[in-house]
Automatic annotation (TrEMBL):
SUPFAM superfamilies hit by this protein: P-loop containing nucleoside triphosphate hydrolases, SH3-domain
Family the entry assigns: Belongs to the TRAFAC class myosin-kinesin ATPase superfamily. Myosin family.
Residue ranges of every copy of the SH3 domain listed in the record: 1000-1057
Signal peptide start and end residues: none
Compositionally skewed regions (Polar residues) per UniProt: 911-929
Region described as Actin-binding: spans on this chain: 557-579
Residue ranges, annotated region (Disordered): 889-1004
Function: Induces bone resorption, acting probably through a signaling cascade which results in the secretion of factor(s) enhancing osteoclast formation and activity.
Entry coiled-coil feature ranges: none
Keywords attached to this entry: Actin-binding, ANK repeat, ATP-binding, Calmodulin-binding, Motor protein, Myosin, Nucleotide-binding, Phosphoprotein, SH3 domain
Stated name of the protein: Osteoclast-stimulating factor 1
Amino acid sequence: IGKKKASKYHWQSQNVKQSGVDDMVLLSKITEDAIVENLKKRFMDDYIFTYIGPVLISVNPFKQMPYFTDREIETKCPVCICVHTYICMCYACGTYNPIGESGAGKTVAAKYIMGYISKVSGGGGKVQHVKDIILQSNPLLEAFGNAKTVRNNNSSRFGKYFEIQFSRGGEPDGGKISNFLLEKSRVVSQNENERNFHIFYQLIEGSSAQQKEALGIMTPDYYNYLNQSGTYKVDGTNDSKEFQETMEAMQVIGIPGDCQMQALHIVAGILHLGNISFIEAGNYGQVESPDLLAFPAYLLGIDQNWLQEKLTSRKMDSKWGGKSESINVTLNQEQACYTRDALSKALYARLFDYLVEAINKAMQKPIEEFSVGVLDIYGFEIFQRNGFEQFCINFVNEKLQQIFIELTLKAEQEEYVQEGIKWTPIEYFNNKIVCDLIENKLNPPGIMSVLDDVCATMHAKGEGADGTLLQKLQAAVGTHDHFNNWNSGFVIHHYAGKVSYDISGFCERNRDVLFPDLIELMQSSEHAFIRSLFPENLNTDKKGRPTTAGSKIKRQANELVDTLMKCTPHYIRCIKPNETKRPRDWEESRVKHQVEYLGLKENIRVRRAGFAYRRVFKKFLQRYSILTPETYPYWRGEEKQGVLHLLRSVNMDTDQYQMGRTKIFVKNPESLFLLEEMRERKFDTFARAIQKAWRKYIARRKYEQMREEASDILYNSKERRRNSINRNFVGDYLGMEERPELRQFLSKRERIDFADSVTKYDRRFKSIKRDLILTPKGIYLIGREKVKKGPEKGQIKEVLKRKLDIGSIRSVSLSTRQDDFFILHEAQYDSLLESMFKTEFLSLLCKRYEEQTKAKLCLTFNDRLEFRLKKEGWGGGGTRSLVFQRGQGDTAQVKPAGKNLNISVGDGLPKTSTQFSRASTRSQEQMYSTPDKRSRPPNAALPKLGSQKGRRAPAAQTQNANLDFLNVPDQGMSGMQRKRSISQRPPPAPTSRPKVQPRSHGPRCRSLYQYVGQDVDELSFEANEVIDLVKEDPSGWWTGRLRGKEGLFPGNYVEKI
C-alpha cells in the first residue's frame, strides 16, 4: 500500500499518472539518496525524463519508448510537449548538450531531438530534403562511427556537433556537422567482448552474393581486425537490415553510386590489409604470405609489389653538410605491423571525414540565420584498461562539465542580481583545476604539453618513450592534488571519479604520424575517389613539429567550448541505470555514483540557492488568482501588489519568500505545495458545485421525462386529477431505508422503484391496507397479521401476502374516470387495488415490464371491469365486477351491490390533459409580483387549494360550461394519502416538548410531507412544518414565508390551518 501512494492520479493533470517529483528543485530533502529515490520511482513507472530547472535528466530505459512517433506528436503527449518546450528554449543559436557516461543514452536523446524537429516543422521541397538528410545522417554516421563496447551496444566512438539551421519562418533549411576524435585505434584492435565499427559486420551480413564475390567477403572470424575480441553479434541488432539502411542513407544524402562502391572497397580493403602478417628475417620484417597482398591491392587500386615495399620499408630524408639525401630504411617486424595499422586507420578516418563532408555539402546554406545545435559526444569512460583514447575522451567530458558549472552558476547569479535577491553563494567542486592539469602549457606544464615534448624527441617506433613520459610527468605534476603515479601509468582524479591510465602506447598514439611513403602509395591509386582522400602536397618543405593527436583534440575541445559560450546551452544529463542493459533493472550504487559525479545535488542547490520556486508576477497571479475573490478573475492593480495580497491571504510567513523586481521567489517546496493544495481545493469546490448543479438538472430532466411518460400512458384514455398532473414523483412514500420490517422480504441489494400504502379490496369488496413495493424483480404486497403462537403471540407482524413476477402480469385494467382504482391481471387470480399514486406506479411498471419481456404491457380502459377471485378450499373462484358512474365531487363513492361494486366520482380534467411546464405554472405569479418581467400566461391554471372546513366557490367564468371539475377537495389528495399512510404506522415516541409557534397575523398552512426546493426562489420544508401564507395563486404555486425566507411552494403539499 505504501508503494501505491507514491504514484497517484491527479485530476489537474488530465488523468496523467504522477510519479515522484518531475522538477527535483522541489524535493524536500536535497541529498543524493533523495535524488536517486526520486529517479527510481519515475524509472520504474516508465518516466525516464526528470528535470532540474532548465536541465533535463534522462535515464536510459533500455527499451523502445512510445515517444515522438507520429501519433504521439499529433496528440501532443506530455513528453513531446516537454521536449517541444525544451527545443523552443534553445531556438536562435541554442545548443543541446547530452552529458553522461557511455551507455547512458546520449545518442538516442540527440536522435529524439533531431527527429522531433524534423517532424514538427513545415516546409517545401528544399526543406523536406534537408529534413531527410537530418534523419538519414544518423544511421550513416552510426554505422561508421559507433561500435559495441562492454558498457554499451551502440557506443558513439566519435564526437558530433550537429548544427541545424533555420529560416526566418522556422523551417530547417540547412545544417552542418563537426566531428571530433574518431577512435581510429578500434579499427585495428578491440578489447574482449567488444566489436569493431558496425559497418564491417553490416557489410559481411548484408551485402549481396555478387558484392561478396567482388569484395572477397568471408565470415568475420576470418579477419584479424574482427576476431581479436571473439564477439561478432549484438543482441537486438540486425546487421543485414542496418546495412540496407546505411546504403539508403548514402543515396538520400546524394553520394554518387560509384563513390558508394568505392567506400565499400575501402572497408573491405581494410579488412584484407589486417590479414597481412609479418615475420622476422635477419632483423627485418617480411610479409609472411605475399598472396594476401593481391586482394587489398586490387580493392585499393594500387600495385601489389609497391604495397609490399611500403609496408616493409620507409624513405627517410637525411641532411649532411647542407645537402639532403633520401634513403630507404627497412623496417623490423613490429614497425611493419605499425605501418600496416597506420595505413588502415588513415584510410578509415579519411573515409569517415569524407562522409561527414558529404552530409555538410548536401545541407550547406550560404547565409546562417538561426540555428539549434545538438552535441552528441562520447561519454565519460572507465574500463579495465584505459589508454590514450579514454584519456582524450575524459578530457573532453571535463571541459563540458566545466562549462556546465560556469554557465549554470553564472545564469543563477545573473538572475539573483537582476532581481535584487539576497542569497548565499553555494560551494561546489569546480573542475577547472582538473582541466588545467591536463591542458596547461606552462607553470606547470599540463599532461598534454609534457606528452607532446616527449613525442617530439621520439625516433622510429620510439621504444622506451612511454617510460620517459611517466618520469617527466612525475617531475612536472607529481605533487598535484588530482594526480598520482602507479606501476603501469598514472591516475587522474576526474569529476566522475578516479581513473587509472595505462601509459603503454600513449606516445605512439599521440604522434599519429602517417609517413609520406603511405600517402604517396595511396596517391598512386587508379581510383580517383581514393586519391581524393589524400590531397597532401609532398613536395613542400615541412617546418615545425607535426600536429599530434593530443594537440588536435585540445584545439577542437576549446573551439567547441567557444562555440557553446556564444550560444545558449541547454543540458541533458544522461544516466545509465545498470550494466546489464536490461529494462527495469536498477543498480542503486551505480546510479548514485553518476548522480554524484554529474553534480546533480550541487546543481539543485545552486538552482535553489535558498529558493525552490520562482515565477514572474503575471504568471503567478494567473495560477493562484482563484484563491481570493479580489484577484479572481482579474486583479485590478499592480501585479506585484496582487502577488503580495495573495501571499498574505494564505498567511505565508514573510521569511518564506522574497519579492524581486519582476519575479516572486518562494523558499521551501512545502510553501509551494501549500499553495497548490489550496488551489486544488478551490477547483474541487467549484467542480463539486458544477457537479451538484448538473446532477440536479439531470434529476429534474429525469422526473420531467417520467411525468411525460406517465402522462402519455393515460393520455386520451382516462380523466386526470388536477393535483396529480404536475406532481413530483418521489418513488418511496414509505421511507424504506428506515423500515427493516418491510425490507426483510426483499433481496439484500434489491432496488426499490416504488413503495406506497395502498387499499386492496377482497371478494366482499372489503378494504384492507397493504404496502405495495415495486422492484425490478417483481411486485410485493405486504400486510399485517396478529401472531397466534409462540413468544410473540398477540403482536402485529408484517406478512408477505403476495409476490408477483413482472413477467407474469398479463394486463392492467382501469376506468376512464378520475378514480384511483386499477386491477392487476395475473394467471392465477387478479388483485383490485386503489392508490393515489397509480400513475407513477403504472409508468414504472410499464418500463420494467418492457425491459424484461421486450413487449408493451397491455392497459385496458373501460367503465365496466371484471377481476377473477382466488380459489379457497372447495369453493371460491368466480369473478366480480366494477361499474363506474358519473357522480359528484372528486372523492370516489363506493357502494357494493352483490357481485358488483358501484363507484361514482365527479368529472376530472379532460382525457387529453397533459402536464403543465414549470415555467408556465409560475409565469402568472411572476406577472403579479414583477410586472416588468414579461412572460407568457399559462394555458390552464391549477386552482389553489381550499381549506379543510369548506369548499371554495369556483371562479367566475364567462361561459356557462360545467365547471365542477375545477372544484378541489378540502385538502390535497396527496395530503390525504399521506395521512392514510401515516395512520397505519405506530406513532413515534415524544422526544421533547414542542416549541410554541409564534402567533401569526395572517393565514398559515401546515406541510403534509417533505418538499425540497428545486430553484433558488423556492422554499424547502419537512413534513408538519408551519408556513406563513403570503399569497395563494390559481396556478397551484403559492407564496409563503418560513424561517425568515420568502419563496414559492406547491399548494398541494400543504393544508391550511
